[in-house]
Every structure is written in structure tokens, then in C-alpha cells.
Amino acid sequence: MIFARNFVLGLLCRATMVMSKAIARDVNSPLSIVTTTRTVTASASTSSSSLTLATPGAPVSPKVLLIANTFEFGYLDAYNFTIQYTGVLFDQILACTDDGTICKLECGQELVSASQITALLMIPGVNLKKAYIIITGTGGVNPKYGTAGGTAISTFGIQWEWGGMFLGDDLPANFSGQYFFSYAQLTPDQYPVTVGSEVYKLNEALVDRFYATGSNVTYENVSETAQDLRATYEYDAAKREPFLARCDTVSSQVYWHGNVAGENVEYYSNVITNGQARPCNTNEDDQGRLLALFYGAVHDLVDFGRVSMIKAFSNFDRPPPQLTAYQSRFYVGEGATEPGLRNAWKTIIAIVDDVLENWNTVFDAGIEPNTYMGDIKGTLGGVCDFNSTSSAAKGSVQGS
């Protein structure tokens, strides 16, 4: 027992040392290491002490609202946020440019962000009915669809936590992973019973426009060590230099990593969207944020057709062939966080420029959805096109 405890403590100490400084090794060695440190860049725009506090109830109607964590805004210096708005029950920073055209919400993580965004929607004078809302931040990347340091723009947001789970010796012998599906489904390929918040589908026409704009942005590359690491993956997307991928986000309050978890996520995403989603971005934030914005749309406080997700890839969500999941998670870690965030902000800046330059001719009136948009229940109207086996994509679990 003493040896086991000392071994674990030794691993933790070693991991801590790796986080404080990058230790580069040959990528083919047992432990290929890339820096895992997340450096928070100091920015005057993230400090509430540098902002002028607006009079309670002062009106603001932004054309763009950016939502991210505080440290992620440390990598954005394109806008001068000068005025802070506050209200009852709202304890985050909502700050806007002088003219109120662009605002940022320094939002928390996980499902707690749903209550924070709800409190934002209740602030008198803050009008988000015409705002294009961009959710951003970092997450892991499925190497089948993207690469570390790249970015994703998504159509689907999927919550993974409606699955059930067995662990350890309780896992049945015929299970390929730890998760099964909601409400005691008898077979893993049966479409599960749903409550409505499992999947949100965004405005695909808006995704088309934003993807076309963002694809013209030139990205910076990751470190040489990270380049060597990505070359060892078997998937073409993983081997590429950072690029803007068009694929979907899956979020859970549980941080997962590895091939078993990754395959479970892919399978569930396939079932819950009948094969339409391409799950590439793993994170702990998006579904809470989408939940609040969706119900804001239900009550006519937000236009859900103006909501988008553009997220950075900080790391691969599973190991390359030469590493275990543990080694990949704790010794390689999230070494692409900084170039990933800079690349994501480059994409977002280009998109914001497009919105502002073409406001009168394109964006003021809004971009009409060209497919179904909304939740799994059709709450905003229309017929959901991904919750029935009759709409299953070819090659999906339910499709032929």
C-alpha cells in the first residue's frame, strides 16, 4: 500500500513538473511530452476595474455577443471593451465596446453557465434579440475530424450525460464500453427516450456562411513537438496543420479521454442524431450555454437562428498508437491550447467583420434556416429531422 501510494504521488509530482515547463522527448519514446500549461494572458479588457459601470437599466443592443471563459478572452485583443453592465442575480462580466456594437460575456463552465446566461437575459436594458451570439473556448478534438490547434464550427450540440454507466466489475461481459443509453433501453441501437435537452441543432445556413468566411483565415501552427506527435495518428485529419473543421460538439460535466470513452461518445452521437452529427469537439461547457440561450429563444429574448459555436482544439481526445490514454492525458495534455485559441479568435474576428460590414444587406434581417433548427422536441416549431429512424443517415446505426 505504501509503495502504491508513493508511486501515485510520484506520478502527480512528475505531472506537476511537466505543467510548469515543457519537457520535449522523441515522439516515439514511451512518454512523448508536450507542455500542458494554460497561460492566461493579462488583458485590460478582462479586468472589471478598468471598465466604466453603466447606469442600471442603460440600454445596449449589440450586433455581436461573444461568450467564453475569462482566461480565453485573454487571447483576444481586437476589441476595446470599456463599459460593464450588471443586474440582479448576475455575477459575471458583461462588457461592451463604446458604441455597444460588440459585447463579451465572461461566462463560467459546465451547466452553471446556464444560470449565468439566464441572469444575463434578465438585465433591464440588455437587448439580445438581434445579436449574433458566438460561443467559443477550447475542447478536445476527435482525430478523425480535426487536429490539435485547429478550430471547429458546429451544427449540433449534444449532451452526453443522459447516458447510464456501469463501472469496474459491474460492467457486463458483453459490453464494449462503460456507457449505455437513457432510461433502460433494451438494445444499444434503439432510439432512446428523451427529455428535450439532449441535442440542439443550430441554423445550418448561418453555419454555411460563417464556415465560408472562416475558411479563408490563415492559422498558425503548433509546436514542433506537437507536429511530431500528430504525425503518428492514423487519421488524415489529425496529421494536418491546424484548419477550420466543420463538425459537432459533445459536452459533459465529466472530462473524458481515451479510445473507449471516445468510441462511446461517437456511438451515442450517432444514435441520438440518427447518424447526422460528426462529433469532434469534446468539452464541458456548450450544452449548458445552449440550454439557456434556447429557452431565451422560447421566450423571445434571443434569436436561436443567430447562435453559433466556434471552438478551439486544445488537444486530441484520445492517444496516438504509441501512448496509453493516461500518458496522453497527463503527459501530453492540452499543449495546443494557446495556438488553438489564437486561431479560433482569428476565425471569429473575420466572422464579426463580415457581420458588421454586411449588417444592412444580410445580417440585420437574419439568415433564414435552410433545414430544421431547434431541439429534439420541435419546441421552436417545425419537424425535427434527426430524431426519427425514418431520417437515419446512410451508414448510421439505424440507417441501411
UniProtKB/TrEMBL annotation:
<comment type="function">
    <text>Nucleoside permease that transports adenosine and guanosine.</text>
</comment>
<dbReference type="InterPro" id="IPR009486">
    <property type="entry name" value="Pur_nuclsid_perm"/>
</dbReference>
<dbReference type="Pfam" id="PF06516">
    <property type="entry name" value="NUP"/>
</dbReference>
<comment type="similarity">
    <text>Belongs to the NUP family.</text>
</comment>
<feature type="signal peptide">
    <location>
        <begin position="1"/>
        <end position="24"/>
    </location>
</feature>
<dbReference type="GO" id="GO:0055085">
    <property type="term" value="P:transmembrane transport"/>
</dbReference>
<keyword id="KW-0813">Transport</keyword>
<protein>
    <submittedName>
        <fullName>LANO_0C00408g1_1</fullName>
    </submittedName>
</protein>
<dbReference type="GO" id="GO:0005783">
    <property type="term" value="C:endoplasmic reticulum"/>
</dbReference>
<keyword id="KW-0732">Signal</keyword>
